[in-house]
Amino acid sequence: MRTLKSFLTKDMEYKIIALFLAFMLWGVVIFGSRTVVVVDRFVEVVNPKEGYEYRLKPEKVRITVSTISRLAKPRFLNGIKAYIDVKDLKRGRHKVKVNVSIPLELVMKVVTVEPPSVRLRVKKKKRR
């Protein structure tokens, strides 16, 4: 009896962590198998400077995402965004890597972004 009691109460914090991880794994299994989803998104410009104009080519990218089958629904996929950060860019032509933000990072993974970068032209707006 004493051995059973010490087995159940010794190192309780590790047992709680193991139980939590077991529930997490169970949840992943319950949600279903993984599937690949392709979405097209317009590239958004983040951190634009006032008085400058930004032109992208191409304006849209194709994003391939791997996710759990039950989450491959429009309400979850609408949160996927493609963007470029233009904070430190000067006037001229640039080739900028496209970044992707996904709403559920624990269960969604970006597989590919086509094209991985876009051509960007930065110029001052004409004053009127």
CATH class placement of the largest domain: Mainly Beta
pLDDT averaged residue by residue: 89
What is the CA-atom radius of gyration, in angstroms? 23 Å
Amount of helix: 25-40%
> How many strands in all?
8
Q: Order of helices and strands, N to C?
A: HHEEEHEEEEE
Tell me what the CATH architecture of the largest domain is. Beta Complex
What's the tally of helices? 3
User: How much of the sequence is in beta strands?
Assistant: 35-45%
Task: Please list the strands of the largest sheet in the order they lie side by side.
Answer: 6-4-1-3-7
The chain-level structural class is alpha+beta
Return the domain count: 2
Low-confidence stretches: none
CATH topology of the largest domain: RNA Polymerase Alpha Subunit, Chain A, domain 2
Largest sheet: 5 strands, mixed
Distance between the termini: 89 Å
Outline: elongated
Please tell me about this protein's structure:
- The structure is a single chain.
- The protein is of the alpha+beta class and 128 residues long.
- The protein has 2 domains: 1-31; 33-124, Beta Complex (RNA Polymerase Alpha Subunit, Chain A, domain 2).
- The chain has 3 helices and 8 strands, in the order ααβββαβββββ.
- Strands 6-4-1-3-7 form a 5-stranded mixed beta sheet, with no helix packed on it. Strands 2-8-5 form a 3-stranded antiparallel beta sheet, with no helix packed on it.
- It is elongated.
- The N and C termini lie far apart (89 Å).
